[in-house]
Design brief:
single chain; Amino acid/polyamine transporter I; mainly alpha
């Protein structure tokens, strides 16, 4: 199929678009990455900064990506090239790279989730949660479940926007929300729930003042990561909008759902940990798995709770994965003229190969390659992509963005000016500061733990 013959798909319904965007936002970013970021970065101090960045940069930045995607009806490379010229296609290529890298290790982590879901039926992780995680986090077991998860993702996306992605998220997202609400209600009945809520919800400004250098980039990166910003997802999904939606309304709904589910995750995870007497501040990407597995072994109805939690977790991971692979698949279809099944299979195979080192290599049992990929992709590349896109639109093409946003709303008046200036100053400044701090932190990781891993 030639590039000129490619027929662009569109969402069948508004609900399909919203649920797909929500599904992208509520996966591992909220249920895996958010709790361990909260625990690692000071509990409520991190939550406060995260909510601040969601409000300050989340909606303004999301509307920029929506405007670019719907205006151009192209993937990130084609979209940025159409607006900024040929040189900006390379920036669009950065978005493709980010999605490719993130899903390569995300799939490995999602494989852990699947493994824990299977183990929940027998209580396999109950006897020694830490040894169980070490046993499944790296090696052949991790590689096999990485392959299973990637195959499931490829199978859904290969069916197309309407028959694959839209149909899947219409089933997945409501299921995720219903199960999480039930789990949160149950968690509220556990002992020590008051202490858990205090840790999670009562801001500790002393921690924020002392540790702001690590909290700020982590919170800003998490806000972008969990909303699927800076990686081309929202550009790609908005490119399938066939009619003039109210983008501001849709963006508000998506962010509301995403933030609510992030908060809900904490209301589930931290009461479980406190009830089992397990520390919430243990750092690292595997901490949530080890801590929750230990907690499920201690609390009443723990086996049932584990089945429900890891089952819901698996669905949420899949809903996010299909959005990440779709960014790259959309590029291959648009720019290379391949049919969807072929493009999806090639992209999924490449992501599997890139993720293989994450599944196979460890440092004393810890999956150190997750940190190597995650910090680079989620706190550096993702934020860099966001800065460049915000600059291109807010400073270089504000009229285009305002005109696109007004199509579904009408004359915005002074609100349009406020929006553009929010993007120009607060959003860009926050991202620049976060990027600088993240680069310093990554350098410390490379010269510290990762250097020890390489030399050892």
């Amino acid at each position: 199929m030639s590039i000129d013959e490619v027929v662009r798909e569109h969402w069948a319904t508004r609900a399909g678009f919203i649920l797909a965007a929500v599904g992208s936002a509520v996966g591992l970013g909220n249920i895996w990455r958010f709790p361990f970021q909260v625990g690692q970065e000071g509990g409520s101090a991190f939550l406060l900064m995260y909510l601040f960045f969601i409000l300050l940069i989340g909606l303004p930045a999301m509307l920029v990506e929506f405007a670019v995607g719907r205006h151009t009806e192209r993937n990130p490379v084609g979209a940025l090239g159409a607006i900024g010229g040929r040189a900006w296609r390379y920036v669009g290529g950065l978005f493709i790279l980010i999605g490719f890298v993130i899903l390569s290790y995300y799939s490995v982590v999602a494989g852990w989730v699947l493994r824990y879901f299977v183990g929940s039926f027998t209580g396999a992780y109950a006897a020694d949660p830490e040894a169980y995680f070490v046993g499944i986090a790296t090696g052949f077991d991790a590689l096999a479940f990485h392959a299973i998860f990637m195959a499931a993702t490829v199978a859904i996306v290969a069916l197309g926007v309407r028959r694959g992605i839209e149909l899947a998220v219409k089933l997945m997202v409501p299921s995720i929300v219903l199960v999480m609400l039930g789990l949160a209600v149950y968690a509220a009945t556990l002992p020590e729930v008051g202490d858990a809520y205090a840790y999670y919800l009562s801001p500790d400004f002393g921690v924020l003042i002392d540790d702001w250098r690590s909290i700020v980039p982590a919170a800003a990166g998490q806000a972008f990561f969990t909303l699927s910003l800076g990686m081309g997802v929202m550009i790609t999904y908005a490119s399938y909008l066939a009619e003039d939606r109210n983008l501001a309304e849709d963006g508000t709904v998506i962010i509301g759902f995403d933030t609510g589910i992030a908060i809900l995750t904490g209301l589930i995870v931290f009461p479980i940990l406190f009830a089992a007497g397990i520390g919430a501040a243990d750092p690292g990407p595997g901490a949530v798995f080890v801590a929750l597995a230990g907690a499920f072994a201690e609390i009443r109805f723990g086996m049932l709770f584990g089945i429900l939690f890891f089952g819901m977790f698996s669905i949420a991971a899949l809903s996010s994965a299909i959005s990440l692979i779709e960014v790259v698949v959309s590029y291959v279809i648009d720019e290379r003229g391949l049919d969807r099944p072929t493009a999806t299979a090639i992209v999924g195979g490449g992501m599997f190969v890139l993720g293989a080192p994450v599944a196979l290599l460890s440092a004393d049992g810890a999956p150190i390659m997750v940190d190597l990929y995650d910090i680079l992709a989620a706190e550096i590349l993702l934020v860099t992509g966001g800065i460049l896109l915000m600059g291109l639109i807010a400073w270089g093409n504000p009229g285009l963005a305002i005109g696109e946003l007004e199509k579904g709303i009408g004359d915005l008046g002074t609100s349009a000016t406020v929006w553009i200036w929010l993007v120009r100053i607060p959003v860009v400044v926050v991202l620049l500061v976060s990027l600088a701090l993240a680069v310093v932190g990554y350098a410390e990781f490379l010269t510290g733990p990762f250097a020890e891993f390489v030399s050892g």
